[in-house]
Amino acid sequence: MENFPVINLEKLDGEERGATMEKIKDACENWGFFELLNHGISHELMDAVERLTKEHYKKCMEQRFKQLMASKGLEGVQAEVHDMDWESTFHLRHLPYSNISEIPDLQDDYRKIMKEFAVKLEKLAEELLELLGENLGLEKGYLKKALCGSKGPTFATKVSNYPPCPKPDLIKGLRAHTDAGGIILLFQDDKVSGLQLLKDGHWIDVPPMRHSIVINLGDQLEVITNGRYKSVLHRVIAQTDGNRMSIASFYNPGSDAVIYPAPALVEKEGDDEEKNHVYPKFVFEDYMKLYAGLKFQAKEPRFEAMRATGGLGPIATA
Description:
Layout lengths: L5 E3 L8 H14 L2 E5 L5 H29 L16 E8 L12 H29 L5 H6 L6 E9 L11 E4 L5 E6 L6 E5 L2 E4 L7 E5 L1 H6 L9 E3 L7 E9 L5 E2 L13 H4 L5 E2 H11 L5 H9 L10
Parallel strand pairs: 1-2
Antiparallel strand pairs: 2-9, 3-4, 4-11, 5-10, 6-9, 6-11, 7-8, 7-10, 12-13
Helix pairs in contact: 1-3, 2-3
């Protein structure tokens, strides 16, 4: 099996830029995931985020999680559970406006550090979109613009902990799914593993690496790239030992953004008609309403359902 793609972003500034861009292209086309090193976010900031996230879980969420799981009888399950995940989560919104000040139980230093971290991740997401667009031959700024609604993009963070699970063979940390949005940036635990992606029919571990950021592509980038890049099924396997931290930040389209394949990536008239209009044209908010009920099902019927609802008309070709 090939090695999971690890990209050293520092190499973009030197003689290895071409080879590094090729590695990014291959990861987007064949994996839907890659791991970044030397991404420009300081180790000190990441260490502070990790420390405060783990302290917050211990202080404010661990006992609640244990009580919730006990109340649902999950610790003693005898058959596979298909409708719940073994995870403790809360959500932060950054764009178009922040809700960090409204989240209960967060210490002031934790609020401050998560705001700072979000700013760095937003910048990194936009840098990556530019690199992806360059590899696709799209005009500068195209992908960022494609994700902007009238109020810009949506940017939010899901902070998760995956505590030790007594029956990891019967309940997933997080069931298999593709992500609905644009580009996802994950700061994951470097000691406790669990994240896996599906490639060529096999579940492959996403390796924990200290101070790395894991990138994966969402359904909207698959549509905008007309299938050149794919969103990929992934899941979290619960572990019997260790508490796995996961901080996933989602750079998504604005709610009223109109999503459709980039005209430059759509075959011109006269070419294979089947290739021309593989993906529908739709408003992101409409897709999210559908996704809410179908997250843990295949993405293809979601695309078909958007087409069946009428979409938003034909897509121009380049």
